[in-house]
Design a protein that fits this description.
Shape: globular
Number of strands: 19
Cofactor: Zn(2+)
Order of helices and strands: HEEHEEEEEEEEHEEHHEEEHEEEEHH
CATH architecture of the largest domain: 2-Layer Sandwich
Domain Galactose-1-phosphate uridyl transferase C-terminal: 258-375
Family: Belongs to the galactose-1-phosphate uridylyltransferase type 1 family.
Strand content: 15-25%
Number of helices: 8
Number of domains: 2
Radius of gyration: 22 Å
Strand order of the largest sheet: 1-2-7-10-12-11-16-17-15-14-13
Domain Galactose-1-phosphate uridyl transferase N-terminal: 83-250
Largest sheet: 11 strands, antiparallel
EC number: 2.7.7.12
């Protein structure tokens, strides 16, 4: 039973998200709010919760202040809640969000750890820090708004443009976006590569649900699900999880890709990403995995020492929520295989591989930009590790001028993947 005494819904429906046949019968979405008002969603694939035999804890007992409640300044005067700000770089046109709240986020991994608990883990009564972001003592997958966001939408806030030092060279606006956390599993010691395909299928459904919902928020221009994994990447919480950033602008990388895809379409009438896939399939050498719905390949101009792009076979898919049931299952399957093979890629001499540090970045079509029609959904997976004991540092050429210098070749990357496992991975 929920706090209101009413039975929780078997499926959480909204105006924008519609579950497919599998999700409608096998994944239960239960919404609630945390103590400070942030949205929180349980995604259950456990049959006991899907059937309603068990229900989730919806009450967050922490004494957190309403994040949108009035605050006070240093003189004790009331002040309205403020969104983080973003400033535009006049040299590049990029918007740079600036969030001082992120300085206060807990760090639980690495030598700079500031806390011993894990706020993404399940509730452990008696441990005040572990009584963190998840109200229940167990969960399957959860999604919630980040407590220390880089961007935030404040209800009722009138958006405006001002200027640093009053100079129109430097526009300033509210960073009117949204940041969410996706926890893949309750076991804080597990690795994403160890998750079952069924659990990853639930993660895929969470991505689809949030893509549909976040795309409908006013002011959102791009929805970006991603995953950071490993201390070398800068991960501050050692727990299998990812994030979803909803930008109030088109991100610079996406802007660059849109310029290329649009120019290609105007010149040829074709879709650049579709033609890249066709060319990679024709070449064959850099294809590392495929199943019925997806193809994974090392791009012919790969930047990173380990880089794989994963794309749907079906044309016309712009965002994750447009995937059908078969494509969502096949995505879970190929993503599981990619994570496992990524961990096996570098050999330390014992044949056991390693926990690969990586970034997994979903490139979806922007929400409103008219160039979205000539884009195509794709996942870009990469690691900065270039050997079992070496990482690629972004030095002068890469960081200072954006000119990438690869430490290997795409063909060598693909050849190593071919040593690890077969290209065709579709299960019978």
């Amino acid at each position: 039973m929920s706090q209101s005494g009413q039975e929780q819904p078997t499926q959480y429906h909204t105006e924008h998200y519609r579950p497919g046949a599998y999700a409608a019968d096998h994944i239960r979405i239960t919404p609630t709010t945390l103590a400070d008002g942030r949205q929180f969603f349980y995604f259950d694939d456990d049959p006991a919760y899907v059937s309603g035999a068990k229900t989730r804890e919806l009450h967050d007992p922490r004494p957190l202040a309403d994040r949108f409640g009035p605050g006070v300044d240093t003189q004790g005067n009331p002040v309205a809640p403020q969104a983080p700000q973003m400033r535009r770089d006049p040299l590049t046109g990029d918007w740079i969000p600036m969030s001082t709240a992120r300085m206060n986020r807990p760090i639980t991994a690495g030598p700079g750890a500031t806390a011993s608990g894990n706020p993404l883990a399940v509730r452990k009564p008696g441990n005040p820090y572990q009584d963190g972001e998840v109200p229940d003592t167990d969960y399957n997958v959860v999604v919630f708004e980040n407590r220390f966001p880089s961007m935030m939408q404040v209800p009722g806030l009138k958006l405006s443009t001002s200027y640093v030092d009053g100079n129109q060279l430097w526009p300033v606006r509210e960073a009117n976006g949204r940041c969410e956390v996706v926890c893949f599993d309750p076991d804080e010691h597990s690795l994403p590569a160890q998750l079952s395909v069924k659990r990853l299928r639930t993660v895929v459904e969470a991505w689809a649900f949030r893509t549909a919902e976040l795309s409908a928020l006013e002011g959102i221009e791009q929805v970006f699900p991603f995953e950071n994994h490993g201390q070398e990447i800068g991960v501050t919480l050692a727990h299998p999880h990812g994030q979803i950033y909803s930008y109030p602008f088109v991100a610079p990388r996406m802007e660059a890709e849109l310029k290329q895809t649009q120019t290609y379409h105007e010149r040829t009438g074709g879709n650049l990403l579709e033609d890249i896939l066709a060319a990679e399939l024709e070449a064959g050498e850099r294809i590392v995995m495929r199943n019925y719905s997806w193809v994974a390949y090392v791009p012919a101009a790969a930047r990173w020492p380990l880089e794989v792009h994963v794309v749907p076979v079906r044309d016309g898919i712009l965002t994750i929520d447009q995937l059908n049931d078969q494509e969502r299952w096949d995505l879970a399957e190929i993503y599981s295989a990619l994570l496992k093979r990524g961990n096996a890629f570098f050999d330390k001499g014992d044949g056991k591989g390693m926990d690969l540090p990586y970034i997994s970045a979903w490139h979806q079509a922007p929400v409103h930009d008219e160039r979205r029609a000539n884009y195509r959904l794709n996942l870009q997976f990469f690691s900065l590790r270039r050997d079992a004991n070496k990482v690629k540092h972004l030095a002068g050429s890469e960081s200072g001028m954006g000119v990438w210098i690869s430490d290997t070749t795409p063909e060598l990357i693909a050849a190593r993947f071919h040593e690890i496992g077969p290209v065709d991975i579709a299960q019978a």
